[in-house]
Write a structure and sequence with these properties.
With 302 residues, this protein is mainly alpha-helical. The protein contains 15 helices and no strands. The chain has one domain.
Length: 302
């Protein structure tokens, strides 16, 4: 591997690993819904995740001289609102449909940020794959409109997360994810307490909750922050299109969710779009180097 390809492949690998971690954490978190509800699961995920990040990074030691607090606050509030919307959507609509609707956010970023015709081809291929993943026969019977609206809200939040995350990461480096998660927890935890009450503090849930917090928040957000400050926004939007594919494979392995031929074709299309995005991004490394701030370029991420 050349010295030039190494710095590029590392953020790509970090982003893909964050997708895997997030899907594992979401699978675990949904197991908590019968006990503490979607609101409580969101509160545990963000609250414990923020606590872990603060203990590991201790960001308060480096706050002096920081700027662009507006982007950080927006980034943190986006984390809280996005996760609340997504988990609320999972209460009433299937996971695959919720993820597909949620994906409208990053795909819009990828499309609107495109400068080359080839980038639009990869976006179109990813959209085709997502369309094949949708269970049309089930969704044609009944889709809860409230759940759909929550999923659309999560999609808007995801798009804002990508854009604000790049700004917050450039201003605060690797500490942005710890600070932003704490802000998001300040939004989500009161909602979770109001819904679940004392059940949120059941000791028997603690080991399970810790796994959810690490897999769904602390680890993926840290890995994503590293990648967001080193890859163009449109490349991030296309790369994370592997999320429905990874979710489908985990569903097959752990939940016994067998896929149709069309769904396997969808996985192939999404992976092909992601590979095309990676290959195309090799031509825009100069853009990453030119836009990265010193805190990001110095490798101060997790």
């Amino acid at each position: 591997m050349s010295s030039r390809s190494g710095p590029f492949l590392l953020p790509v690998g970090s982003l893909l690993l964050s997708v895997l971690s997030f899907q594992l954490g979401t699978t675990l978190a949904k197991q908590l819904f019968p006990v503490i509800g979607a609101q409580g699961a969101t509160a545990i995920r963000l609250g414990l995740g923020a606590l872990i990040l603060w203990l590991l990074r201790r960001p308060w030691r480096r706050l002096a001289g920081r700027h662009d607090w507006g982007s950080l606050v927006g980034y943190g509030l986006t984390i809280g609102a996005m996760n609340l919307c997504f988990y609320m959507a999972l209460r009433t609509i299937p996971l695959g449909i919720a993820v597909a609707i949620d994906f409208l956010g990053p795909l819009a970023i990828a499309l609107f940020g495109s400068r080359r015709l080839l980038d639009i081809v990869w976006v179109a291929l990813a959209v085709a794959g997502l369309a094949l993943l949708l269970p049309y026969h089930e969704s044609a019977q009944a889709l809860d409109p409230v759940g759909v609206m929550f999923a659309l809200g999560a999609a808007v939040g995801w798009a804002a997360y990508i854009l604000l995350g790049r700004r917050a990461g450039a201003a605060f480096g690797g500490d942005a994810v710890a600070l932003g998660s704490a802000i998001g927890a300040l939004l989500a935890v009161p909602v979770g307490i109001a819904h679940a009450g004392s059940a949120l503090f059941t000791l028997s849930l603690l080991p399970f909750a810790l796994c959810v917090a690490v897999l769904s928040s602390a680890l993926p957000y840290s890995l994503e922050m590293y990648a967001l400050t080193r890859l163009p926004a449109r490349t991030v939007g296309i790369l994370v299109s592997t999320e429905p594919a990874i979710g489908a494979l985990l569903g097959l392995e752990f939940l016994g969710e067998h896929l149709t031929t069309f769904q396997w074709l969808a996985i192939a299309a999404i992976i092909a779009a992601s590979v095309g995005a990676v290959l195309g991004a090799r031509d825009v490394r100069a853009e990453v180097a030119g836009t990265a701030q010193p805190s990001a370029a110095s490798g101060s991420g997790p």
